[in-house]
# Entry
Amino acid sequence: MKQYYGQQAKMVIQPGKRDECIAQLKDIIAVLQHTPGCVYYLISTTEEPDVVWISELWTSKEAKDALATNPESVQAMKELTPFIASIAERAAMTVVSGFGLE
# Structure
């Protein structure tokens, strides 16, 4: 059975900066669309005004880890950092099944 690597993170954003943070995250998506191994990268919000949820799915943990060596993604993450107050929750997962995967 094929397994995927998934990660979800709850980012607490500096007050009033959520829209700017989302705009910066969209720049990261532009990089990820051409990154081998990235199945999806979702940006989500809830009723919490200063929170952004990120959901990622990769073909493997190694594919996700390789992103740290991509100069474009490293630069995009540096530009994102000032918007983030904290990463309140983070969960790494082994995804073993689901609709659209098999």
Notes: The chain has three helices and four strands.
